[in-house]
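Is this the right way to post C-alpha cells for a design question? Let me know if I should format differently. Anyway, here goes:
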C-alpha cells in the first residue's frame, strides 16, 4: 500500500493528445475523457509511461556525466554500460520492470489519472480566461485530502446559474462593463459576471488563509506569466457551462497525406484528431511506497535514493528531485505536441 503522496501539476505548453483510440463519432481520434462527466483526463497508464521515459533519460544522462572524466580509459564503454545498468535498476525499482519475468515486481511509485483543473477559453478581452466549475473544485479538494496537502476550500458556490460566472480578482483583464453590470465574453457566449474574492484556501496545519487564485498561482507554476495570469483571470462557471466548453472547445485538427505522384489526398488518409488546448492545467497524485524487492536486491538501491524519514519518503523525494521541469505526454511527439511543464508540491 502506498504510504505517502504529493500532487503534481501539468501546464500544457503545446496541444496535448492523450488518445482513447478510434471512434465512430464526428472526431476520428478523440482524447481520453471521464466516463461519468466527459471531462478530459489523462489515463494513469499513459502518464506513467511518459514520466518513466523522461526519468530514463535523466538517469542515463547522469550516468554519462559521472564518467565524463574517464572517456580516455579503454574500459570506458564497459564502465558506462555498468553505470547505465545501475541507474536503470533505480528506474525499475521506482516504476517496475518493463518485462514480466521471474524478477517481476511492482513499482514503488503510483499515479492517479490526471484530472482537468483549469481549461483555457478564448476571451474578448484579456486574450483568454481559465475556466473551472464547482464540481471540479470540490473534486480537487477531495483529491488533495488523499495527499499530504491538508487544506480546505471555503466559499465555493453550490452551482452558479447557467449563463452566469464568478471572477476572483477585481483586477481581472477579461471583464467588460462597469462595477454595476460586468460581463465576460467567452468564445461567442456572454456571461453575467460577479466578483467573489472570498473563495479561500485554508491550510489546516497552521490556519493560514489564501485566496484560491493566489494559492493556485503560487502552487501550479514558477513562471511569472502563468502566476500573473492565474491570479487575475480564473473564472468559475456553472457545471453545465463548464461541461459544454470542455466538450466543444477543444482543438480539432484535420490531418491528411498527399500522394506525391498524383498530388491528391491518399485514400483513407483524411482524419480528424482532438487535442487539449495549450495552457490547459491538470493534476495527478504521485503516490510512493517502499521498494518491492527482496532485502538483498534493494539494499544497494535504497542507499542511492534521496534523503527521507522512511523508505517511501525517500522514493518520493527521489522522484521530486529528478522530475524534469518539461516532459512530453501523449501522441504527436514529432509534431511538437504534448509538451508540458511540471511542478510538484
Amino acid at each position: 500500500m502506498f504510504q505517502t503522496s504529493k500532487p503534481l501539476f501539468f501546464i500544457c505548453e503545446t496541444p496535448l493528445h492523450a488518445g482513447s483510440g478510434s471512434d465512430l463519432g464526428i472526431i476520428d481520434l478523440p482524447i481520453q475523457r471521464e466516463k461519468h462527466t466527459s471531462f478530459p483526463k489523462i489515463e494513469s497508464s499513459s502518464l506513467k509511461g511518459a514520466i518513466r521515459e523522461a526519468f530514463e533519460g535523466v538517469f542515463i544522462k547522469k550516468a554519462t556525466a559521472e564518467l565524463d572524466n574517464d572517456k580516455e580509459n579503454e574500459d570506458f564503454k564497459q564502465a558506462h554500460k555498468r553505470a547505465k545498468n545501475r541507474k536503470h535498476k533505480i528506474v525499475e525499482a521506482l516504476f517496475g520492470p518493463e518485462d514480466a519475468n521471474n524478477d517481476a515486481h511492482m513499482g514503488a511509485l503510483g499515479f492517479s489519472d490526471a484530472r482537468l483543473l483549469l481549461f483555457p477559453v478564448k476571451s474578448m478581452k484579456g486574450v483568454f480566461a481559465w475556466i473551472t466549475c464547482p464540481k471540479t473544485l470540490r473534486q480537487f479538494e477531495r483529491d488533495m485530502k488523499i495527499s499530504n496537502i491538508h487544506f480546505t476550500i471555503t466559499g465555493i458556490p453550490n452551482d452558479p446559474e447557467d449563463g452566469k460566472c464568478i471572477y476572483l480578482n477585481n483586477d481581472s483583464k477579461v471583464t467588460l462593463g462597469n462595477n454595476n453590470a460586468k460581463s465576460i465574453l467567452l468564445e461567442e457566449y456572454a456571461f453575467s459576471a460577479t466578483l467573489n474574492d472570498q473563495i479561500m484556501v485554508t491550510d489546516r496545519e497552521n490556519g493560514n488563509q489564501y485566496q484560491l487564485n493566489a494559492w493556485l498561482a503560487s502552487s501550479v507554476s514558477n513562471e511569472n506569466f502563468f502566476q500573473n495570469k492565474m491570479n487575475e483571470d480564473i473564472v468559475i462557471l456553472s457545471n453545465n457551462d463548464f461541461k459544454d466548453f470542455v466538450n466543444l472547445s477543444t482543438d480539432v485538427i484535420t490531418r491528411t497525406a498527399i500522394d506525391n505522384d498524383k498530388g491528391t489526398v491518399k485514400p483513407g488518409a483524411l482524419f480528424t484528431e482532438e487535442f487539449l488546448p495549450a495552457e490547459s492545467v491538470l493534476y495527478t497524485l504521485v503516490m510512493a511506497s517502499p521498494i518491492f524487492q527482496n532485502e538483498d536486491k534493494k539494499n544497494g538501491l535504497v542507499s542511492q535514493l534521496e534523503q527521507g524519514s522512511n523508505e517511501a519518503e525517500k522514493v518520493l523525494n527521489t522522484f521530486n528531485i529528478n522530475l524534469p521541469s518539461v516532459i512530453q505526454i501523449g501522441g504527436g511527439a514529432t509534431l511538437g505536441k504534448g509538451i508540458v511543464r511540471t511542478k510538484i508540491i
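Format looks fine. Someone answered above. Worth noting: The chain has a mean pLDDT of 87. Helices lie at 44-66, 76-95, 134-146, 212-220, 224-232, 239-248, 295-302, 311-322.
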